[in-house]
């Protein structure tokens, strides 16, 4: 039977302490015990259902973690204060001095900077590879490799990882395949395709209201227990803990994710198709011209579509900047980083979210100056949006006027 991630979220049932339809929020950092012995056991992680201190866990954080584990099909999950809080914790949990990571080279700028500049200080080295070439990935694996890291749909170039193929490599070489699924929640379920661990920045589509940062690590019980171990758990000791008030609010937003993803995908597919027909260099996994269109199709959960992210290349950074300013002036979206908002967000990745990546490497991976990354919003009338965006492009000489 097909995996139904949205059903798994919907089927969860939590009530508040007075029968509220939403679970009560645990507004406490510390918890009392009737017995001193239970306090000791709880500290050691051996007293199920008891809480000690909210950096360790809190009821609200556990509710959200469970819902996200249900979405990804893992045994359990732990939420973190940001996506980077999840990524850094999981990588440091799995790798130590003299160990090695094989990572996609087209990843979120912060993750890239962490692996490139920060983890070498701890003796962890990373090889960055073209994730779409399985032979290149395998060639980079050494006896010291512990982790294979990728994004299911990469930021910002929208390359698609062959998760089944990567999972087979991970299995063969006894590595953990960690997939950042931030760009494709619900659309792609990496665990079902063989991944070991899924991380998300909740900041983006999952929360969807651009009011907070947040993250999650979804995995098996053993991994999550390790991350939360009071003696050597990275999530526990690095302290990237989400606040309970926030996790309660993210949980409420998660319940509409399936509806939002369908609308993001519908709108993005509409615009991508129009932009491509207008002759713009357009990248969207839902377009047949996308090199990994078929691969995405073979991995996706039908109905959530190909996601809300697309890029166009308008030729130069100047043109990209003028277009983004004009679109913002006409209220077609905001010139802002991040993604998953109800409004369309656009930015030029080379000079913003991927600026951690040195220019020569940007060129090598195909990150050009004129690239604009769009996170397409929930616009009720996407045809009107298209007409108005097209008018901006004609006005700036990016497109020639057509006889519409
Ligand atoms: C935003 C983002 C992150 C980092 O998440 P934060 O919540 O900003 O820490 C990681 N990976 C991807 C793909 C992202 O888009």
From TrEMBL:
GO MF terms held by the record: transaminase activity
Needed co-factor(s): pyridoxal 5'-phosphate
Record has Chloroplast as a keyword: no
Any Pfam family matching the protein: Cys_Met_Meta_PP
Transferase keyword on record: yes
Alphabetically ordered keywords of this record: Aminotransferase, Pyridoxal phosphate, Transferase
Family the UniProt entry places it in: Belongs to the trans-sulfuration enzymes family.
Name of the molecule in the record: Aminotransferase class I/II-fold pyridoxal phosphate-dependent enzyme
Annotated source species: Winogradskyella echinorum
